[in-house]
Amino acid sequence: MQVPEQVQAAFNDAVKAGADRDRLKNEGQAYSSDVVPKARGTASRLREEAEGYRQRVIAQADGDAQRFRSVLTEYQRAPQVTRDRLYLETMQQVYSNVSKVMVESRNGSNLLYLPLDRLLQQSGGPGGAAAVGTVTPGTEPQTTTPAAAAAADSRSRDGARSRDRESR
What we know:
Helix content is about 70%, strand content about 5%. The protein is built from four helices and three strands, in the order ααβαββα.
């Protein structure tokens, strides 16, 4: 088909516009077919993670409730024994990561030998200064660390010397 020369430019523009429309439509569909499945996959993954978290929290809460019920049953049978056991378990958990050695001395009657170097090596603690503490019933633990005491003593001496120099 022959188009008159006067409208040839408009006809070419119309053809280019149609081709641009088809190209842009195809690009939009390609983008949509790329992005939408990724978004659906991400949404599905997030839903699965949320469901897993939900189930984990529920299972943990059920386990905690069951443990509480069993402790309650034992507490009703023997309150003092259960209290002591809970206290000891808690102290064991708290002190499991401490590098200090606690020694209980009741009435000072026992002389106790502790291979502190071996104990510290087994626990992975420092091989140098050992911390030794004594606990008497009803009192707070008192600990001494030889290296810390020496460091504090040397700091106090250095501070006194610098003050002497400033006053001269």
